[in-house]
Design goal:
This protein has 306 residues and is an alpha/beta fold. It has one domain: NAD(P)-binding Rossmann-like Domain (Rossmann fold, 3-Layer(aba) Sandwich), CATH 3.40.50.720. The chain is built from 11 helices and 13 strands. It has helices spanning 11-20, 52-60, 74-79, 81-102, 133-148, 170-179, 197-209, 226-237, 267-273, 280-292, 295-300; strands at residues 2-6, 25-30, 41-44, 64-67, 105-111, 153-157, 159-160, 184-187, 191-192, 195-196, 214-218, 224-225, 244-247. It has a 7-stranded parallel sheet with strand order 3-2-1-4-5-6-11, with helices on both faces. It has a two-stranded parallel sheet with strand order 7-10. Helix 1 packs across helix 7 (197-209) and helix 4 runs parallel beside helix 5. The protein is globular and about 55 Å long. The chain starts with a strand and ends in a 6-residue tail after the last helix.
Length: 306
Amino acid sequence: MRILITGASGLLGLNLALEAARQHTVFGTVHSHDLNTNLFQVLSADLLAPGALEQILEEAQPDWIIHCAALAMVDACESDPELARKLNTDLPRRLASLVARGGARLVHISTDAVFDGGRGDYSEGDAPNPLSVYAHTKLDGERAVAEAHPGAIIARVNLFGWSLTGKRSLAEFFVNHLTAGKPVMGFTDVYFCPLLVNDLADLLTHMLDKGLSGLYHVVSGECTSKYDFGVRIAHRFGLDASLIQPTSVTQGGLQAARSPRLTLRTDKLASALGMSLPSLSTGLERFYNLYQQGYPQFLQGLSTNP
């Protein structure tokens, strides 16, 4: 298959491109962070520029498209809601409209943050209630894609892993700070179901292989607090867990509101794929093994920005 991945320098996009390139012909778009690799074809483009999407689709001629590009930094969306709207709502709407006319399969990446986190245990049928600009624009993006391309997959995700800059995921935050002996906050009242990005990449291509469409929660079947997540990382890496200070999110100094209980049900996807989803425990083990194999340094070596 020919696969086009937007946002190929991001946490999900880069790992997805590398995983998919083992079996498929992959094209990855980048904008502010260029890549130096021959493992897949890198296409540099500003996807908001007039005609850019059409040009990329013409060049890649993809069978599958996985749209990862977004403004995913929650507080940055609060600071620039107009850019958030362009990237998280308007761009996926235009892409879905173009793809629907051309016949390719589309996966649109959304977020668990569309829920307010008041109760948790959310299924795909539960009504979203976004709290932040980021969450609002991502939910509007979901709806725009579903309207423009009803056959698309919309995947709500939460992920961790190794990134191009080494600073894109919560797991990296804990590893970096604890390795340096620096104290960090760990929120005891924020729960989530993070999935290792490499496992997420495998699941997304599996979903396309299976011919799925519609809305799915693609997260770990195992949920935890952000404090406990940090403690588990500390223990696996042999770091000092006492440096993680149990803290309420209200004391975190964050600009945008965070949903406290983003625990999502995954039985719909597990049933569709006929398999259990990867657990957080196996994800943390694979995350550690990748570290042992030098994978973080390999990724950072792909960057053209010193």
